[in-house]
Design goal:
Layout: H1 20-71, E1 89-95, E2 98-104, E3 112-115, E4 121-123, E5 150-153, E6 165-168, E7 173-175, E8 178-180, H2 193-201, E9 208-209, H3 212-223, E10 276-278, E11 284-286, E12 293-300, E13 311-313, E14 349-351, E15 360-364, E16 379-383, E17 392-394, E18 396-397
Parallel strand pairs: 12-17, 14-16
Antiparallel strand pairs: 1-2, 2-3, 3-4, 5-6, 7-8, 9-18, 10-11, 12-15, 13-14, 15-16
Length: 398
């Protein structure tokens, strides 16, 4: 008997693992997918935080409207008792029967503000300057009877200047020993803070050396104007910081044509050397930064922000805030500016938290050779009120 066997043929296939190239491709793909997921997640978180800020603004606004119905006016406090979510910072300013609320958070992509004149929520902080309601700004007063050569400045409740004031359009010039605001001539220099106070008071009825609060009011006002920034919007690239590159060496006269903001600097657009800045009311001011350092009436014998030893420092690098009043920090009044440095053109601070040897006067703006130290928030605290530096002048307010 013949037995038949079914013969099964098996095809043998060679088994092998991934090559190094294949493994690398897989790792790269996984990394890309993880990055996309993380970015998307962070974006969702930021959007969620934005929604929380907007909700907090609406809730706080409702509370303010209820308070007005009950008392006939909006509260005049700091708004610290307004409702808010955990982690939300609310800043409340009120003037002229209107108010503005700013909500910010470290988790959100930006700050938002709500203006009572429009009831709308807009990106960015309250600016604290005059407005008609169309741009979401608080409607603060400004004077309408400024002396010749002065411009009206909208007030700011953060610095207790709600009623507004008049300020010299140009740095003070010596015209027959009278402090005069005019384009012609170089600024009045080699003057002490003490003499600048006396000279300012004699300039006109009610005149005085510009105060720290008034300087900061102007500084925060111009910081909030798009056209003052080289990038065309607030916070983009840098704000113009005036004649500060020591070329030419020395202070410059101004021009009667406000469109000629680079007058005398040898520079043209684009350059940070532009000497003109525009306020929110359309007025133009010359040399708030650069040209010569300007005395304000501020004085301190201690409490300087910074660290041990006099040195120039970036505002956002200062650990100790000191006890100066009003608070000179960029974020005070402009929360979005908390991380701005001299790269954004705001200037630096020259101070020491430990080495004050006596009374110090406040020097603002920076001079013709201050370089990146110049800017509308530049602050020097190293000079006594009796010193007469050759690059120091002043500006008068009323």
């Amino acid at each position: 008997m013949r037995t038949l066997f079914n013969t099964h043929h098996f095809t043998s296939r060679k088994q092998h693992g991934f090559t190094i190239v294949e493994l690398l491709i897989v790792i790269v793909v996984i990394g890309i997918l993880a990055t996309i997921s993380l970015v998307a997640f962070n974006g969702v978180q930021a959007k969620a935080a934005d929604v929380v800020l907007k909700s907090d603004l609406k809730n706080a606004s409702t509370q303010l409207e209820i308070a007005k119905v009950e008392s006939g006016s909006y509260p005049d406090d700091d708004g610290s008792d307004l409702p808010r979510s955990e982690g939300t910072t609310l800043e409340y300013t009120a003037a002229s029967g209107d108010y503005c609320l700013t909500a910010s958070s470290s988790r959100a992509s930006t700050a938002f503000h709500l203006d009572s004149t429009t009831g709308t929520i807009t990106e960015g902080p309250c600016t604290g300057h005059e407005g008609t309601g169309g741009d979401g700004d608080v409607a603060f007063d400004q004077p309408n009877d400024c002396p010749t050569g002065f411009i009206p400045v909208p007030g700011n409740s953060l610095f207790n200047t709600q009623g507004g004031f008049c300020a010299m359009k140009y740095e003070a010039k010596n015209v027959g020993d009278v402090a005069t605001s005019q384009a012609a001539g170089t600024p009045w220099v080699n003057i002490s803070q003490t003499d600048a106070m006396t000279t300012s008071s004699a300039a006109c009825d009610g005149c005085h050396l510009i105060s720290e609060a008034e300087w900061l009011t102007i500084a925060h006002n111009v910081l909030d104007v798009d056209s003052n920034w080289s990038g065309g919007s607030v916070g983009s690239d840098y704000i113009y910081s005036g004649h500060n590159d020591n070329s030419p060496t020395g202070a410059l006269a101004a021009d009667t044509n406000d469109a000629n903001g680079y007058y005398g600097t040898g520079n043209v657009s684009p350059s940070n050397q532009r000497r003109t800045l525009t306020l929110t009311n359309g007025e133009v001011i010359w040399d708030m930064a650069g040209n010569v350092r300007d005395w304000t009436s501020g004085q301190t014998s201690g409490g300087q922000p910074g660290a041990s030893g006099f040195a120039y420092r970036q505002w956002n690098a200062i650990a100790g805030t000191g006890s100066l009043s009003p608070n000179p920090y960029p974020s005070y009044g402009t929360p979005a500016a908390s991380n701005w440095t001299s790269d954004q053109g705001i200037g630096q601070i020259y101070s020491s938290s430990t080495e004050e040897t006596g009374l110090r006067g406040f020097l603002r703006g920076g001079g013709w050779g201050s370089g990146s130290g110049a800017g509308v928030l530049s602050l020097g605290l190293g000079n006594s009120p009796s010193s007469t530096p050759s690059d120091v002048g002043f500006r008068v307010a009323r």
